[in-house]
Design a protein that fits this description.
514 residues, mainly alpha, two-stranded antiparallel sheet, two-stranded antiparallel ribbon, 20 helices, 5% strand, Uracil permease, transmembrane, cell membrane
């Protein structure tokens, strides 16, 4: 009996061909229907970065539409590259690509330091080239980006973007007389309320698209109140190919490239996690080569992205969740979604329409959107082991460093310009601190402390809720004896942990207390 090779799988002649789950073809109609669902799920996330960075750079509304359309276009191409794959590029998994939120805070710092969008594009190109060069060795570098580092960075990203949401809610332009008005803030609050109400819907589609629907509803209300101006949406072409280097040739600065390289390392870590996660969901084999191909697609798309006025590309985690929820594992569904993004990117009129959405509406939705990023980081930090180590100090110090530019924007103003560009970004500050402290405490042998030798290491012992319940049930006669709490008969008071084990209730009081 002869053998033949089919889609990386060996099968017997005459037997039914065995395909990878992600290679399933659902037909054009169903693929585009499910692909549209992917686009709607990540649409708010993919248009927010160009709005934030473009707004910080002072881009006028008409050109802001070009920036939005460009990011949609390059996100679609990156998605097709990742899902279809070519030799050396693309994981061939159902992964949707788009502008990374992890880069937003750093890009804002770069454009506001005098370099404008050209400096941002140059920093993205150079850092992506560095990321592309290190992908073969990233398996060795990734150990320096454990959850204590990535969780800290992602949390800081979300927190760093909160001022953006607040500024949007107030009107985004302090020179306008309506900036910070009750009307603006009420409109933002209404949009936020709509997000919360729709998120509670028992209809999955409505719940998952709550932010997009809330923006539409909030914009409709703003239009009725006369706070939305769509008069300039028709100005300009309806269909157009993104003009290369529309905002000028890229400018390369050492500080900008260094700060973006830090972000790229975090993005590579996130994309690796997304590839592993979607591989587990799809129930397909993911090896080192496949991860490398996926990372090269990430960095290759990011390298080309600035040519078409786009930013750093990465896999969207929310779409990984959508694969798990729907059970649709076909990578060609995601390819169809990428095609939809490309089409949307060829419609600058759509970008101008998005740019015309009132900022207070975006502020109300942004509060949830950016808060979700922070919550995702907190969820990652919840997986970190804090017992008998200095991880608590790593998180505390790094988040504190990341919050300095937010709490005191002029904190570093007397330092050199290159230093300001790096540390003016909360994400860069937190990432540098987290990586260095993790190296010091968890990788350098002499810096490791013995269990219980540090007040910070000991500070991670908090009373769990079930232990509090046990304390609340103490009765008269219960007392401390032999280092544990016992009842009047001398029997130890015990509590059931989350894993079902019964343990003695820990003593946090002084000896002799009852």
């Amino acid at each position: 009996m002869t053998m033949k090779l089919h889609r990386n799988r060996t099968v017997d002649d005459g037997a039914e061909e065995v395909q990878r789950p992600e290679d399933e073809r659902l037909g054009v109609g169903r693929s585009f229907a499910y692909g549209a669902q992917h686009v709607l799920t990540m649409y708010g996330g993919i248009i927010a970065p160009p709005l934030i960075v473009g707004g910080a750079a002072g881009v006028p509304p008409a050109q802001l539409g070009v920036l939005v359309a460009s990011c949609l276009f390059i996100g679609g191409l990156a998605t097709i590259l990742q899902s279809v794959g070519i030799p050396w590029f693309g994981s061939q998994l159902p992964l949707v690509q788009g502008t990374s939120f992890a880069s937003v805070a750093t890009l804002v710092a770069i454009v506001t330091q005098g370099g404008g969008l050209p400096a941002a594009f140059g920093s993205v190109m150079a850092s992506a080239a560095i990321g592309l060069a290190i992908t073969p060795f990233f398996a060795r570098i990734i150990r320096f980006f454990p959850p204590v580092v990535t969780g800290t960075v992602i949390t800081t990203i979300g927190l760093s973007l909160m001022p953006v949401a607040a500024n949007w809610a107030m009107g985004n332009n302090a020179k306008l007389p309506t900036f910070g008005s009750i009307e603006n803030i009420m409109l933002a609050g209404f949009t936020l309320l709509v997000v919360i109400i729709l998120s509670r819907s028992n209809v999955p589609a409505i719940s998952r698209l709550s932010i997009l629907f809330a923006i539409i509803i909030g914009t409709a209300v703003a239009t009725v109140l006369g706070k939305a101006d769509f008069s300039k949406v028709a100005d300009g072409p309806i269909v157009a190919f993104p003009e290369p280097f529309f905002f000028g040739a890229p400018v390369f600065t050492v500080a900008g490239v260094l700060s973006m390289t830090i972000v790229v390392l975090v993005i590579l870590t996130e994309t690796t996690a997304d590839i592993l996660a979607v591989g587990e969901i799809v129930k397909t084999r993911v090896d080192r080569r496949r991860i490398g191909n996926g990372l090269r697609a990430d960095m290759g798309a990011s390298l080309v992205s600035p040519i078409f006025n786009g930013f750093v590309q990465s896999a969207f985690a929310q779409n990984v969740g959508l694969v798990a929820i729907t059970g649709v594992k076909s990578r060609f569904v995601v390819t169809a979604g990428g095609a939809i993004l490309v089409i949307l990117g060829l419609l600058p009129v759509l970008g101008r329409g998005v740019a015309a959405v009132p900022y207070p509406v975006l502020g109300g939705a942004g509060l949830v959107l950016f808060g979700t990023v922070a919550a995702s980081g907190i969820r990652t930090l919840a997986r970190v082991n804090y017992q008998g180590n200095m991880n608590l100090v790593i998180v505390a110090t790094s988040v504190g460093m990341g919050m300095i530019p937010i709490a005191a924007p002029n904190f570093w103003e007397h330092f050199p310009a290159w230093f300001q560009t790096i540390f003016h970004s909360g994400i860069s500050s937190a990432a540098i601190a987290a990586v260095l402290l993790n190296l010091f405490f968890n990788h350098i042998r002499f810096a490791r402390q013995k269990p219980g030798s540090s007040v910070f290491a000991a500070a991670d012992r908090f009373i769990a809720f079930d232990e509090v319940q046990a304390y609340s049930k103490l009765r008269e006669g219960d007392h401390i004896e032999g280092g544990r709490i016992v009842d009047a008969d001398g029997k130890p008071l015990r509590v059931k942990q989350s894993d079902g084990q019964l343990v003695d209730v820990p003593i946090c009081a002084g000896s002799g207390d009852h």
